[in-house]
Write a structure and sequence with these properties.
Elements (H helix, E strand, L loop, with lengths): L7 H22 L8 H13 L4 H8 L3 H14 L2 E6 L2 E9 L1 H23 L3 H19 L3
Antiparallel strand pairs: 1-2
Helix pairs in contact: 2-3, 2-4, 2-5, 3-4
Keywords: Coiled coil, DNA-binding, Transcription, Transcription regulation
Pfam families: MarR
GO molecular function: DNA binding; DNA-binding transcription factor activity
């Protein structure tokens, strides 16, 4: 059985998928001295942006299982990047919140990645940068209905 040729739409989808994946990996490599993995950094950034929350809620937001989030949170607690506190709405539950050092880590790693992305954008032609700017709203829309 032979594979069917890609339609132009399939080709665009494949190219977009590969380009975004490669760009994401390249930007992560730029933070090669990271003390925590991408999952931990993402969870920590979410806590900074959205505030303290239960680990289960954080797992839903990050799109991972509760046990996986528990492992990430335990690691972040050990490293001193997050702390657990009793949930005022339910004393049996705990909230997870970033510490000062956790917030500093995220801001530092974000700055490194933003500088790396800016350097990549600077290498583009003026027309290419304009095309990226034009496509930005559409790319943001692709992430707005994640579930």
């Amino acid at each position: 059985m032979s594979a069917q040729p890609e339609s132009p739409q399939d080709s665009t989808t494949t190219r977009l998928y590969l380009a975004l994946g490669r760009l994401n990996r390249a930007l992560r490599r730029d933070a090669k001295d990271a003390t925590i993995g991408h999952g931990g950094l993402s969870a920590l950034a979410t806590l900074i942006e959205q505030g303290p929350q239960r680990a289960g809620t954080l797992a839903e937001t990050e799109g991972i299982t509760a046990p996986a989030m528990t492992r990430i949170v335990n690691s972040l607690v050990e490293l001193g990047y997050v702390e657990r506190t009793p949930d005022p709405a339910d004393g049996r539950a705990q909230l997870v919140a970033p510490t000062t050092s956790g917030t500093a880590l995220v801001l530092d790693k974000r700055a490194v990645r933003l500088r790396a992305l800016q350097e990549r954008l600077d290498r583009l032609s003026e027309d290419e940068r304009a095309a990226v700017t034009t496509a930005l709203a559409a790319l943001e829309n692709l992430t707005s209905e994640m579930s």
